[in-house]
């Protein structure tokens, strides 16, 4: 089964597995993604950083403390060095031996099976060093190489940094771009005012900061509205009340049950 490129009548809000089914498996791993796909989800969100030898790696945190109890960054080690780490044992011994999650591996496993929301993770220091530019370029190169397996309407590139989105859009204008609105106030209004709406498909705001004003801003600019991370009924009710287009949750199994089983409505034979 695979997503149909022409299926434009799917119901919303989309149910997005945030870093996979991270309530059931170590986040941003192939196991977490496969667990998420056990449910009638509409997409998977994942995080991308880059190794010292410029291999896009799936990881969220600023340091490797979660995985290896080390304060090093993903960018400090090569792919070979990162591959020696156990990417599942930190979560539970049952996941010991989980392999290094890479963007290439995720695309090979997931392309055509669900929507993919790829967040490019950068810091202010990454821009000063040129790392952010290199990471963005490498992500686009990997996506270009896998382009024949990817539908443009089913792939989204997310970032908190507008410069990343602008660079990526210049390199690959056919993908869809989503601005992750910074969670800290009062920067929210300033961030939205600076957003290059002509290249954006949507904005994505944390559910705790999402307001009717933000939702109205998105509608006025004809942008989609995504939100994260909705892990309970109150958060989901707020998201629905504000008319979001996509709900991200760490609990995709719970979310799909809470919103109702729509299995089969998004998928058809390729």
Automatic annotation (TrEMBL):
Pfam families in the record: GDPD
PROSITE patterns according to UniProt: GP_PDE
Molecular-function annotations in GO: phosphoric diester hydrolase activity
Gene3D superfamilies named in the record: Phosphatidylinositol (PI) phosphodiesterase
GO biological process per UniProt: lipid metabolic process
Every GP-PDE domain range: 13-259
PANTHER family linked to this entry: GLYCEROPHOSPHODIESTER PHOSPHODIESTERASE (PTHR46211:SF14), GLYCEROPHOSPHORYL DIESTER PHOSPHODIESTERASE (PTHR46211)
Name of the protein in its database record: GP-PDE domain-containing protein
Source species: Desulfatitalea alkaliphila
Lineage of source species: Bacteria, Pseudomonadati, Thermodesulfobacteriota, Desulfobacteria, Desulfobacterales
